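Listing S7. Sequence submitted for prediction.
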Amino acid sequence: MAKLLLVDDDIELVELLVELLTLEGYEVDVANNGQQALEKHKNYDLILLDIMLPVLNGFETLKQIRAKYNTPVMMLTARRNEIDRVLGLELGADDYLSKPFNDRELVARIKAILRRTGCNRNSTELPHQWEDVEHATLKFCGLTLYPGRQQAIFNEQDLKLTGTEFALLRVLICHPGQVLSREYLSLNGLGKVLSPFDRTIDMHMSNLRKKLPPRSDNTSWFKTLRCKGYLLVAEK
């Protein structure tokens, strides 16, 4: 059973979401402000984090979580400002959902995050042969990816990628030298269909560029092809 931490000060909404997510088979704990979230955020598979929080707002809470931990985080907020969405993704949020939202969409996004971070304990187990593929170690230009523990290593250094960043890098490494559209990356990396004008993929790719050290041959890791997508530069 996956464990979720719901961080929101709207008591009525919290009660409804706890009931919904419990019925879906999740174990749900609650924090009513950012400080409480920081005090109890360990050992959860996913954090659902509101932005407008007392004591410590969601952005600052996320920033402090990301300083030490890679726990998946989905931002939940009534604010529809595009700047807020971009800021949340830049700070390391795995996904962003505006209130009011459809219950089914929330559950679908939770399942997608847990699936790509290897924590979807409510899903049917994969057949053994597929499980072997899903957990196969990948190597590319000094990078080693361990899907079983969602860890990316470069020259013995842990890159501390979020689950979403890891998922995107994994998809790209499986297709070196190929142009992958944003739609393809969203569906195969994030587990969801890309919405029009959605910049989520671009923000996560920007974060990946910042975290990846220089390659030994000094070439760029990625190329952005306007109106086409992204390409992981193949080894020489």
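Caption to Listing S7: primary sequence and predicted structure tokens for the chain studied. Residues 120-133 have pLDDT under 50 and may be disordered. The two ends are 45 Å apart (CA to CA).
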